[in-house]
Model the fold of this input.
Amino acid sequence: MDVKNYIKAARLRTLPLSVSGIIVGSFLGYNDSTFRFSSTVLSTKISIGATPLYQSSIFWLAILTTIGFQVLSNFANDYGDGIKGTDDNRTGEKRLVASGAITPKQMKMAMIITTVITLVVALLLIYVAFGKDNFGYSLLFFGLGIASIAAAIKYTVGKSAYGYSGLGDVFVFVFFGLLSVVGSYFLFTKEINPTIFLPAFSIGLLSTAVLNLNNMRDRVNDKKSGKNTLVVKIGAEFAKYYHYYLVIAAFLFTTLYTIMEYQNVIQFLYLIAFFPLIKHLIVVYKNKNEADLDEELKKVALSTFLFSIFFGLGQVL
Done:
């Protein structure tokens, strides 16, 4: 067994994007729970559930759980597209099952092992966040964990793989955006503030933009292989307009949130991450060869990660 092949299949460059929602939700959750913790200290009713050590444990366990889901998704994507022949003539780096570096049987075993490890970490996260007294919440998040695993696998695996019917964008928006941000916020606070859906929309839209770029790059090959992504369905030109809307709407939702929750100008720190995206949109607009969009994937993914960091810092500084 060549470990390097499994590391390649894990696609480490996708991990910063996958944790962006956790970072945003955790910053917001930390900010709100710390405010309440300070209030309880002043009234001499200190709760261990709001201490920095407790909050740090939730954050890192949530990060590890999300990384597990992402690696599982990447393994499943490599496996599903590989056995269906979709990756035989793909643009960009070779996939491991399609190239024969990892056999389908070996990849299935890697998926099983990743699933088990991720479930164990997720259960530990649930226990740390909710303890023994919030069984309802624990059951809910366990169900969400199972749903995340199913979504990671069913993107390309099986006859009803939703990635082959144009629904990948919806699932990415929901799981990378809404569930990631709102879910991690809830782990800290045990409540939902409706306004946090705005930055959750932003993360979801930027994550969908990365998927859209990937599908724009692979459009020709996907069409030949019968992988009917949204880009294949709407065509190259409309896919560009769709991409503009995703990025611009992400900016608008976060700006609306910042205005609604405005306290000081540092909250607009996230704008730094949007400057590279302006240049990116120009590149997409001028693009004639879809294969050249491969380099843009890194730019949008890293800009989303930086956005999550700058946005979060703007909330707590």
